[in-house]
Amino acid sequence: MPLREVIAALDARYDPALAESWDAVGLVCGDPDEPVGRVLFAVDPTTAVVDEVISTGTDLLVTHHPLLLTPVHGVPAEDPKGRLVHRLIRAGAGLFVAHTNADRAPGSGVNAALADLLGLAGAVPLEPAGDDPRAGLGRVGELRAPMPLSAFAAHVAALLPATVGGVRAAGDPGRVIRRVAVCGGSGGSLLPAAAAAGADVLLTSDLKHHPVSDAGEVAGPALCDVAHYASEWPWLPVAAEHLRGDLAGQVEVSVSRLRTDPWTWHAAG
Amino acid sequence: MPLREVIAALDARYDPALAESWDAVGLVCGDPDEPVGRVLFAVDPTTAVVDEVISTGTDLLVTHHPLLLTPVHGVPAEDPKGRLVHRLIRAGAGLFVAHTNADRAPGSGVNAALADLLGLAGAVPLEPAGDDPRAGLGRVGELRAPMPLSAFAAHVAALLPATVGGVRAAGDPGRVIRRVAVCGGSGGSLLPAAAAAGADVLLTSDLKHHPVSDAGEVAGPALCDVAHYASEWPWLPVAAEHLRGDLAGQVEVSVSRLRTDPWTWHAAG
Amino acid sequence: MPLREVIAALDARYDPALAESWDAVGLVCGDPDEPVGRVLFAVDPTTAVVDEVISTGTDLLVTHHPLLLTPVHGVPAEDPKGRLVHRLIRAGAGLFVAHTNADRAPGSGVNAALADLLGLAGAVPLEPAGDDPRAGLGRVGELRAPMPLSAFAAHVAALLPATVGGVRAAGDPGRVIRRVAVCGGSGGSLLPAAAAAGADVLLTSDLKHHPVSDAGEVAGPALCDVAHYASEWPWLPVAAEHLRGDLAGQVEVSVSRLRTDPWTWHAAG
Amino acid sequence: MPLREVIAALDARYDPALAESWDAVGLVCGDPDEPVGRVLFAVDPTTAVVDEVISTGTDLLVTHHPLLLTPVHGVPAEDPKGRLVHRLIRAGAGLFVAHTNADRAPGSGVNAALADLLGLAGAVPLEPAGDDPRAGLGRVGELRAPMPLSAFAAHVAALLPATVGGVRAAGDPGRVIRRVAVCGGSGGSLLPAAAAAGADVLLTSDLKHHPVSDAGEVAGPALCDVAHYASEWPWLPVAAEHLRGDLAGQVEVSVSRLRTDPWTWHAAG
Amino acid sequence: MPLREVIAALDARYDPALAESWDAVGLVCGDPDEPVGRVLFAVDPTTAVVDEVISTGTDLLVTHHPLLLTPVHGVPAEDPKGRLVHRLIRAGAGLFVAHTNADRAPGSGVNAALADLLGLAGAVPLEPAGDDPRAGLGRVGELRAPMPLSAFAAHVAALLPATVGGVRAAGDPGRVIRRVAVCGGSGGSLLPAAAAAGADVLLTSDLKHHPVSDAGEVAGPALCDVAHYASEWPWLPVAAEHLRGDLAGQVEVSVSRLRTDPWTWHAAG
Amino acid sequence: MPLREVIAALDARYDPALAESWDAVGLVCGDPDEPVGRVLFAVDPTTAVVDEVISTGTDLLVTHHPLLLTPVHGVPAEDPKGRLVHRLIRAGAGLFVAHTNADRAPGSGVNAALADLLGLAGAVPLEPAGDDPRAGLGRVGELRAPMPLSAFAAHVAALLPATVGGVRAAGDPGRVIRRVAVCGGSGGSLLPAAAAAGADVLLTSDLKHHPVSDAGEVAGPALCDVAHYASEWPWLPVAAEHLRGDLAGQVEVSVSRLRTDPWTWHAAG
Q: Could you state one GO cellular component term attached to this entry (chains A, B, C, D, E, F) (predicted)?
């Protein structure tokens, strides 16, 4: 099947029109006229992932994060990102990015997958986008059973892929959590939306000291911070499953076994 | 002793001219003509810290973080920060901020205190500022004895105040660490300076996924992430000790016993 | 009655949504939960007015001009405006500002009060704002009886509060004035709107040489310049009267007896 | 004498390099190759002044204020300023502007002339400009004899050309004035410089309510406001006298008898 | 007939509201109350054209290009454009500009005239503007008979006024041209619109190397470059004819015989 | 020889520090560690030039014009420029750009080569750059023998590579040309510098109607316009010769035989 048709299937699920204006989605390298037999999904286009692409004979790597979010005037091999472009092109492998369009996608996107994994009932977008009311950034829904914040943190740690940093929470550990807002990736800016939606907690990643400290001074959701990678990983098997179906089994689709969370060690404080 | 004289002693240590142009340092509330008998140091001007100010009869609270970094058109008590201003003014207590000027101060600043606590020999600023070569952001120096990155993380965890999140490291856990760059607070932007200085690791806080992931793709320092609060706390006893001496013992100076790190819970991943 | 309810009554008359985007209206200091027994209206929050607030046991000062139009990072008492905040907070008095929302308010605002004092019939806004056609900046209406510009100046001087600078007019002193445009405060930018509305004169304040000189070179309204303070003062008794009624007499409401026009002396040219 | 040589004499006194970057000085219309026998000085290029130019057979009008400070795409006669250009060109008369370069000129400029008229001893610029220490905006010097602010206002009124608005002062009328800062035209922005220079009063024009009100809240100079026209008129006879000398009497040079202050009437408040 | 009525007739054909926001159209000099007996049309208001205006006793010059596109603070005769203003005003001649409003005019504008001259059938705007579907920039229509690009270049050279530079084409000389896009003046930015309209060639002027080189790398229209002057000249006789009719023959209307293309010599490469 | 060493030789001749801040010079694709046996120079990286690279087994293409002046988020093969990157990378060929650094290079740059080809004596930069007085944009020098502008155009046409558009001149064809300013590429903005340098003509490319028309209205240089490609081509053999020598003959260096001027046809006007 030509790459062109695989791209069409991905664009149908993750409409590029849903991407943020500053984003860089779509094909980074590869030729739409060349055939694709094997597709691999990963969160990040790192060197280790490209090694896997090449060693497995993958024809198309689909990642959530852009390789070239900052635009470039060239892809020389002396630059680490340019080197990956050289390796992919020479191996005949394409790279395709579904980033904020995958975050906002209505049915099988990053935030929908995260909400599903946590078992949130009645989940709807925190920040709707586009015409479809099911599309947008973040999700907010109800836990099947209320639990204290401390238990919620353990629940999250058990469901998401393991990372050395684990799960941190801010707020009264005994606070009862019923309504949960989530945002895969760096979602701290959705705190006002989570508060407006009546969430008891906002689960996201890359939270910094000042907004968390300020949140502690007002009524509003507790906060739960996980590895950026862990918050987005749940999308990979979902997206792979959908693509497999969309292409009627003509292409082999798998999920990378690599953990691309960059943190490698933890020492208790 | 009038507040005016305490401020003069603080300004002499933490020259306001060293502050970043966007920063908000100096007196937030309080009357320079009123007397000060008791000074309390803390990292953050939170509600709990103001409770401590009032319950201990403190006349001047000195914090590292500004209360009003975003400027305001008023301080109404319905706003959490305005409420703190009301409580401090009614209690006759002033609030003084030493932020990026304390970060950059040559001898007794935030970064110098952090480097000293870690026992770095020959520490110099990562990003010099002003005329004094000892002034500037960050520090880089040598550990007394080399150790693997994994041991370095444990070493840091043992020396800094305990936090629920502990210490995370990115890089090969077995990499030998000799030369250490540090930056109290959010110092990820100093990574190029740390690399240029030949550091084996950069210790700072508030690191986000993308720069850490990119750092893993190039040669350069490993990364070590601690709580923002923990990275700046070492300054408090140093600054208190200096002020006590500068005021010749006429004013009682202490350090808050409160942990203002907003994270309250951790679940292993 | 709690301050919260007084604020609600003021917001109902002077909808904050009518304020310019650059403006700073609402509560500057004070606690919405504390009780209010006495309210004082003034044009400017000056030291003399705050003296009056404190000596009269006023609980809420309502001014037209913002205290902190330029936002601040603190309210230290060494700054004159910070000193007023300290004095008000320690005296338990709040400060509330109704500025461009009061200018534009439909029925009992600054411009409506000025037009009423001058006896303008059929007055409508010069620059409509919001959904209510009676709301907006400036007013234009008809004098009960036409009079020459020179007599109009004397008429204005007799009706507005006395100021040392008096009233100046530009244009042929004998020109007959029928249709009058007014704008409380600095309203020179409304000259095109006044011309379009067929006004014979625009009465406002803070007019500078160049626009007045240019206006003399074209057909269009004559100009009449009064003290900024004088042009806005007429609102005070009107607003006080309305608030008294809105609060059903439960709160004592008065108008400051102080003249806050800063000009203190005049010598004839 | 060709216009070119008259311009050279004016440029030598009022160096165009001293003008502000936003200003519009130099020749507005006229041909440098045509002869000039008669020069007229005025503050403003109004219709009445152009009438005088034409009725007196003047060849060159020199004004302080630019005709076209806002640049234009044409000078059609339906526009009042374009009409003046048509009348001047058809009458064979040029228009030359010396504005902020005349304000800042060292020896015979607008501010120097104003300081001289008030009899200020040891006057130096408030805001130096260029290489010559005598050049710059504003002047500050000592009165021959101290006097109260009220008497100072009367003194000013007696020395400057009469205007309907007269002279206003802000501050304690009894304050003793010794050191006087002046700035012809709209000079309110020089208040900090006047304060730094230890002035007891700043005399200028076009002062608006807010800065004058704020000035009343701090220690610092009193303020004195005169007509913009009156503050700049003193330059006209000085400049005419200098030009007459510079051209060795070959050209007839005079000062317009017209008052171009646009205010025509005053009613006491 | 007063100039005012001639302007009204021109504005009716070339609605100023159709001009670009950065443009400078309308009357540059002249008095709407003065009589007009003779009107001359030209592309550029150059010295040679003004010589013709004066020698022929023309009362109104109408040009396509603005004299003062960059706005000015004066029109001194030492500046070449100011000198033309002096000469026109002294000769009693006005200058009127119809630029991008003439480009976009529906029936008798610059682009319509160019399309008509080339015999394009069914021509419609490339970039519609305003409410009238016939108004807008550029035109695209069908040649009466297809011809190779090389023959099209010769066809254009034969129909447009002769210029030393002649006509250049980029693309396969044998490519068959059926559908032609045109844009008088500098129209390279319309290439995407021409491609979207299915044009085989875009004829315009002032094309630079890089966009032409890039166009050669993709499918899309060939390019044809003529002198800027030549591309706009066809409007002159059309506009003159229309104005003659609109003014019912009361005013003598003619087209300048001058070639204002600035290129004077050509050497074959 | 590794590509790294070829790049070092090019950077030594064409210091990247001389490039404009907006430019995109250096390696676009290729691996500095791979060997280079054959280098090809061309003005533009077009498809035809890449065909030549591949058919001749070239390892490094050096062009004057950047492939990716507008930065990109990817190089997918469906984009014409991305397709060239794919073809080059798969063929093992690098692409290196020397653009404004080559324009400004002191001894063997684009402008120096153009001046040499025209035989200009005593040529110096029109707009010096960097520390070396021989470096900078454009050149100005003396013809060996004066000649009329018409003959100069023929002289230029004879020396530069042939192009369909030939050479155009603006100005009096009989004007005697002695002193010649040149600027390879789009150099119209250097006209003031050429005038200040006393040039009789400025030779450059991509000149548009308005600046050429304006130039005809003032004293100053005549203008001569050639194909952008033709003005930069003279650099190719010079740069090839230098690189051959710098690499001591270890690498085969040649100049593309392709004409990359995009114009393909000319019809006399």
A: cytoplasm
- Nearest CB to C229; choose among D161, D186, D209: D209
Summarised one tens digit per residue, pLDDT across range D167-215 is: 999 999 999 999 999 999 999 999 999 999 999 999 999 999 999 999 9
Domain chopping of chain C, boundaries = 3-102, 105-231
- In the annotated binding site of C for a divalent metal cation, the residues are 64-65, 103, 228, 232
Gap between the Cα atoms of E261 and E64, Å rounded: 13
Chain C residues close to B29, C-beta within 8 Å: 74-77, 82, 85-86
Q: Are strands F127-128 and F26-29 parallel, antiparallel or unpaired?
A: unpaired
- β-pair type (E167-170, C222-226): unpaired
Alpha-carbon distance of E197 to E128, in angstroms, equals 12
Return per-residue pLDDT of chain E as tens, 269 residues.
999 999 999 999 999 999 999 999 999 999 999 999 999 999 999 999 999 999 999 999 999 999 999 999 999 999 999 999 999 999 999 999 999 999 999 988 999 999 999 999 999 999 999 899 999 999 999 999 999 999 999 999 999 999 999 999 999 999 999 999 999 999 999 999 999 999 999 999 999 999 999 999 999 999 999 999 999 999 999 999 999 999 998 999 999 999 999 999 999 98
Q: D73 and E76: CB-CB below 8 Å?
A: no
Count the helix, strand and coil residues of chain E and give each as a percent rounded to the nearest 5. 35, 25, 40
Chain F CB contacts of E162 below 8 Å: 269
Mean pLDDT of F81-97: 98
Q: Which residues does E contribute to its contact with D (CB < 8 Å)?
A: 24, 26-33, 66-69, 71-78, 82-83, 85-86, 89-90, 94-95, 97
Do B and C make contact via 3 or more CB pairs under 8 A? The reply is yes
**What digits encode the pLDDT tens for the residues F146-204?**
999 999 999 999 999 999 999 999 999 999 999 999 999 999 999 999 999 999 999 99
pLDDT at B107 over 90: no
Query: How far C30 CA sits from the closest chain B CA (Å)?
Result: 5
Chains touching E by CB (3 or more pairs below 8 Å): D, F
User: Is D209 labelled as part of a ligand binding site?
Assistant: no
Q: State yes or no: chains E and C have 3 or more CB pairs below 8 A.
A: no
Q: What's the whole-number mean pLDDT along residues A3-10? A: 98
Residue of D nearest to E66 (CA): D73
Given the candidates 3.50.50.60, 3.30.450.40, 3.40.1390.30, 3.90.1150.10, the CATH classification of the domain at A3-102 is 3.40.1390.30
Residues 6 or more apart whose Cβ sits within 8 Å of residue A1: A35, A36, A37, A247, A250, A251
* Cα distances (Å, whole numbers) of residue A21 to A101, A135, B152, F71: 11, 16, 42, 16
Same CATH fold assignment for domains B3-102 and B105-231: yes
- Cα–Cα dist C243/C250, whole Å: 10
CATH code reported for the domain at B105-231: 3.40.1390.30
Cross-chain Cβ contact C67/B74 below 8 Å: yes
Q: Compare all CA atoms of chain C with the CA of D209 and give the residue at the minimum distance.
A: C228
Question: Does an interface of 3+ CB pairs under 8 Å exist between E and B?
Answer: no
DSSP characters over A67-80:
S-SS-BS---TTSH
Distance CA B23, CA B43 (A): 16
Point out which residues pair with A264 in neighbouring strands: none
Give the strand order in the sheet containing C201-205.
C121-124, C139-148, C176-186, C201-205, C222-226, C167-170, D265-267
Nearest residue to C70 via CA among C17, C21, C23? C23
Instruction: Assess contact for D94 and D107: CB atoms under 8 A.
Output: no
pLDDT range class, residue F16, cuts 50, 70, 90: very high
Least CB-CB distance to D75: which of E75, E77, E78? Answer: E75
